[in-house]
């Protein structure tokens, strides 16, 4: 009897109709079960009420090759034709494959990274691989993750790839299946495709839990299947939702501290709701009408938040363990987990609620979250920290969404329109300052720190205070906006002073290099030994302008001395 051999990725199988014509792909979970798309089964005529009860499953990664008939397991064909929701099916092989493989589907972030899929286009019945880039929300049917082509001219996903396992390439989940292909789009040079993440599949097929691994994206407190619409009926909760949505749905990075308690008793229901709009598992229970009918800037794209965790009553080890499982990290002590998160590509988007209600809040901040908060912006991480009371004074943050009313002096008759205008100017200036800092601020040693963004919180309070005029809070909002604009002017001045100094030093160094080369030649060794460290100091980041200035001056002095010798 011939020995059974596997090539790489033995879970790759082809789904054929009963005549042997290829209809799509599937993932072999074990010797008895194959996961595929519901519409692939329909193409084969074996959907409930179809022309046949069987499909054929053929191996593409085993030697010798094998073929088995299979049927849809009871209550596992899920597909809504009107909305394209679901589109999953679990097939049971009529005889064991004899493969001995067991495949895990991993719950993994879909906001970025690369995957490889193996499908069966019309002209390639033996299959062909294609690489794709994960691009977050597919903006189709609420629960699809978008796949984009990486390079023009490479093989691309088309009919025959549906049901194929999306295998992560590179990163912590390298070689693991994180979902299946459900659809393709080809229109000339415009090409894209979509996948269902593991968490969405598991929502439709809870019976495959034993074939999954990893931590869920959303571990905030449980909530009902539908989105709680009454949360957004409150102006304060609506404004908080809109501000956090704007931040997380943009290219912004940094740390947001969110107040969920205090005298306003705003609670965290709005934050729980917002996280659920990005949750692949929750999306399966939310209708398109609920998503499209929500107020503007209150729905995140699928997979925008990579991980959300409720720290109330949890230890530092609990939080670290969740992050290790969710991001597929090697693990270690909290400091090591923090280091791994800061080095992760693509950078993570993480929400941690109830920080001050953890078992040991000080240890949680000291050992894990505090350093994440300090370095989030420079590493591209988006970190949201929820507190039921006032955040600790030493915590670094880039945006505060404290819902508490602002206290100031007596009302000066400032109108809501005037306050709206000055806050709008502040928001524009904060955006410009952020762009300048991103381009230049990270390049200099001891560069001025970008002031925290004040506009988001001021917009939140304005949404509440503008209902009544005159209102002392309108005056307070106006004055704080003016103060924040003044701080931005100082930041801009200090950073541009460094930029100008760097440009002047670079120009001086080049001017004297050209002058020296004209008279002494480019091969002059003594001058080259002075020039090289000066040039290196001006381009090695973080740039220490003090040290660079000393080295440039030494080079110029040597050039001038040589001229005096002549």
Write the layout of secondary structure elements.
Layout: E1 5-6, E2 12-16, E3 22-30, E4 33-36, H1 38-43, E5 55-59, E6 62-63, E7 67-72, E8 78-80, E9 85-93, E10 105-106, E11 114-119, E12 128-137, E13 145-149, E14 165-169, E15 177-187, E16 190-197, H2 198-204, E17 212-213, E18 218-219, H3 235-248, E19 254-259, H4 269-278, H5 280-283, H6 288-292, E20 307-310, H7 316-327, H8 334-343, E21 349-353, H9 361-379, E22 382-387, E23 399-401, H10 416-439, H11 455-465, H12 472-520, H13 525-539, H14 545-565
Could you characterize the architecture of this molecule?
- By secondary structure, the protein is α+β, with helices and mostly antiparallel strands.
- It has four domains: 89 residues, Trypsin-like serine proteases (Thrombin, subunit H, Beta Barrel), CATH 2.40.10.10; 109 residues, Thrombin, subunit H; 187 residues, 3-Layer(aba) Sandwich (Rossmann fold); 67 residues.
- It contains 14 helices and 23 strands.
- The chain has a six-stranded antiparallel barrel with strand order 2-3-4-9-7-5.
- A hairpin with a 4-residue loop joins strand 8 and strand 9.
- Helix 8 packs parallel to helix 9 and helix 12 packs parallel to helix 14.
- The longest helix is centred in the last third of the chain and has 49 residues.
